[in-house]
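Notebook p. 47: complex prediction with cytidine-5'-triphosphate.
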Amino acid sequence: AGAAALRPDLAGRRVLISAGGTREPLDPVRFLGNRSSGMQGWALARVAAARGAEVVLVAANVEVPAPFGVRVVPVGSAEELRTAMTAEAPSADVVVMAAAVADFRPGTVAASKLKKGSTGEPTSVDLVRNPDVLVELVAARPPGQQVVGFAAETGDAEGDVLSHARAKLARKGVDLLVVNDVSAGQVFGRADNEVTVLAADGTVTPLPAGRKDVVAAGVWDAVAAAATGSG
Ligand code: CTP
Ligand code: CA
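Predicted complex, structure tokens below:
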């Protein structure tokens, strides 16, 4: 990745990336969360900066420090992520939604800590749907802006990974969808990753399995190819 990662082919491009996993509060000390480490989004930010881009990383509960030269906007919940992305997106040339955004949040957030033995001890959590940030960003995008989504998929009775991914790309209206086949098991927290990049024009580009920074370099190659219409 050395030489490729340092090619300044993203110079002058303004890139906005979300990474990590949102936490949806239940009370002042508890949340519903997910297992995203944020490392693939973090690697995308690091590699984009190394290739000359001006990078903003909206980081949902990412435990590691900012990559060199990247402006980080820390967020917690899906709502905070939505606010940050909506504020930053209008000035971006490329928006990448690598964050695992909670589909649902608790419908009510207790103002004080939920206690055992209290009157009204909770027995269930009511959930409401979060807004789809990616769909909103696509709807509001300025002309020429590229929007990239991520999806972790498994095959099921409805179809295989690729057919689910194609449907999701169309449903979201993105230019590119970076697809992780999670049928085989655990990807969360691992150093390696293996993805396939789907483009709106139908192009399917499997990237070789590798460290997340190598995968990030491949994703930026696909973004650059899609921008010039050569791939
Ligand atoms: N996404 C988003 N806002 C949400 C949910 C997802 O912006 N509320 C984004 C993710 O960041 C990702 C893409 O949408 O880039 C696909 O996420 P995914 O969870 O695969 O899609 P969903 O539409 O939530 O579909 P599913 O029911 O399969 O979870
Ligand atoms: Ca989802």
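Notes: The longest helix spans residues 212-228. The helical segments are 2-6, 39-50, 78-88, 133-139, 161-172, 212-228.
Next step: compare against the earlier run before touching the bench.
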